[in-house]
Structure formats: structure tokens, C-alpha cells
Amino acid sequence: MEYRRLGKSGLQLSLVSFGSWVSFKNQIDDKIADELMGIAYDNGINYFDNAEAYANGESEKMMGRVLKMKNWDRSSFTVSSKVFFGIHGKDNKPNQKGLSRKHVIEACHEALQRLQVDYLDLYFCHRPDKNTPIDETVWAMNTLIQQGKILYWGTSEWSGVEIMEAHRVAQEFKLIGPTMEQPQYNLFERKKVESEYLRIYETVGLGTTIWSPLASGLLTGKYNDGIPEGSRLALEEMSWLKDKVMADDKIKKIKQLSALSKELGVTTASLSIAWCIKNPYVTTAILGATKKAQLTDNLKSIDVMEKLTPEVLEKIENIMQTIPVKPEF
To answer: CA-to-CA distance for 98 and 25, rounded, in angstroms?
Structure first.
């Protein structure tokens, strides 16, 4: 396993990590979660990703049960949560969501209980909150760090402007600013990581914990001939994602990418993840496997990186045609 520093911090995360979005509670039970987390850990993965909103808190409870049963040395792994959406969905009351000081701190306490840990290594603002001043959120996160309840805080799907405003507030009041961002990044979604955040990597520093490196499974090639039963897009609660993902032009590109991966002797999934982690600004890419074979194949992406020669990368770009326009500094 290869490890990379989280931005300019001293924390090192495994190049691929293991997450629970959609899968925990909705697709797998404690037994399978235990098996998959065990495989991940045994293969050098040291980061496990979660959030308050995943399965309305049940995902964190499941991961907490597994962590307690595994009884790994706490210093050998990192675990995260995210705050914003709350755990009650549409039934959230006013202060049970968002990034107010009240919700940020209460949600942290609740996440610690569900995950059965004394502190969170990483704590993310799951989305920007237009109703809460950024300085209030920065102060709340700094308080949690001072109390030892979180070690690093970051953002998810924030704009570059919002991230830099958080750093401005932190600098003004001598607080700790955000260390990392969790954006979506894959062969279809590239603008933030490859364009919008470019200056931030070089100035204040920014680690990235990538979600959906396989574009909700689309980049595995399993949807090339429709939606298979038991897959993520077959879930009723994921119907909102189906139309966004299952576009004809995307499927056409995936079929060409699958042909290229076959030529290279690798799977479409491992090739797509390898492309993602090839980017040096990617600290870690979060895997969301539900089966042992799936996770084992995803882990091979680290070795597949060697196959990504300039010629192969050019072939991928010619197929995908998704390079974002980079800013002029």
C-alpha cells in the first residue's frame, strides 16, 4: 500500500480507503461489513469514511460495531464523519442540520457515540451552509480540535472561494483552517480537482479524500447493458441518481473504455480508479465495495497505475473528452 500526506499536514492516508455511503445498512449487513473492513485493513487501508446522514446514522452504528469487534490499535487507523444533513432527513428540526455551532458540536458528539470512538480523525462539513457565517463554523471546528474530539477538519463539495474564506477567517483569528476537501472526482467529474482547487494546493495546501471515483459504479462497466439487480442504481432510494448517471453518451464512452481495459488485461473499474489516484493531488480515493471480489479487484488499481503510460493516458483522454479548462494565473 502507498500512503500520501493529507495536504500539508503530517497525517498519512492510504492511497485507497474504504467508505460506507449507500452500502452500509442498505446493501450489506454487519457480517459482510466486518469481512470487507477486515480485507481493507489487512491490505494496508488505514482510512474508513462515514457521515451522519448515511442511512440516517445507521451506517455509523454499523461501522462502530465492526470497529469495536475488530479491536484494532486505535493509532493504526483513521475514521471520519461529516456534518450538515442531520440524521432525520425531511423531519430534521431547524437546529438538527446545517453548520451552526450547535449542530456541528452536537453532531460530533453523536457521531462519536455511534462510531464508538473517543475522537474523530477527520471531520467534514458535508456541504456549505448558506445560512451560517463561515466564521461561526470555523470557530466551532477549532473548539472541537482544542477539546481533542477531532484531529483535522475539512469540507466536502465546497467551492474554492468558500474554502479560502474559511482559511481567511482562520488566519485572522489564529484558528486552525480546513486541512482537506472531499470532492467527487472521476473520469466524468473533474473541474474542482483539476481546475478550481489548483491554486489552493500550492498556497494553504489541500488534501483530497475522493468520493465516487467510479461515478456511482458507472465506470465499472456493469451498467453497459442496463441496470443489474442488486446494484446501487437498482435501489429505490437511489432513483434520483439513475437519470443523471445512465446517459447514452456516457455509456458509449464506458464501452470504449472497457475495450481499452481489456487490451491492458485489467478491469474497467481498476483502470478508472488507477486513473484517479494517478493524480498527485489525490490523497486517497474512497472505495465503496459490497463484495469481496469487488474490493479485491479495486485494490489492484494501485498496481494498475504502472500501466498508465503517457500513451495509455492519451487514449483515455481521447475516449472521454472531459479535460476541464484550467485557470490562467
So the answer is: 24
The single residue of 3, 47, 54, 281 carrying the catalytic annotation is 54
Q: What's the predicted TM-score (pTM) here?
A: 0.91
- Asked if residue 264 has pLDDT above 80, the reply is yes
The C-alpha atoms of residue 297 and residue 72 are separated, in whole angstroms, by 24
Is residue 322 one of the residues assigned to a domain? Answer: no
**The predicted structure's pLDDT at residue 327:** 76
* Phi, psi (deg, nearest 5) at residue 26: -80, -35
| CB-based contact 9:40 (threshold 8 Å) | no
149 part of a folded domain: yes
Q: Look at the chain and report how many structural domains it folds into.
A: 1
Q: Quick: pLDDT tens for 214-224.
A: 998 899 987 77
**Is there a catalytic annotation at residue 54?**
yes
The terminus-to-terminus CA distance of the chain in angstroms comes to 35
Decide: 302 and 1 in contact? Cβ < 8 Å. yes
| Beta carbons of 109 and 52 less than 8 angstroms apart | no
234 within a domain of the structure (yes/no): no
Q: Which domain holds residue 113?
A: 3-217+276-303
Residue with C-alpha cell 452500502? Answer: 23
The CATH number of whichever domain residue 110 belongs to comes to 3.20.20.100
Gap between the Cα atoms of 244 and 91, Å rounded? 26
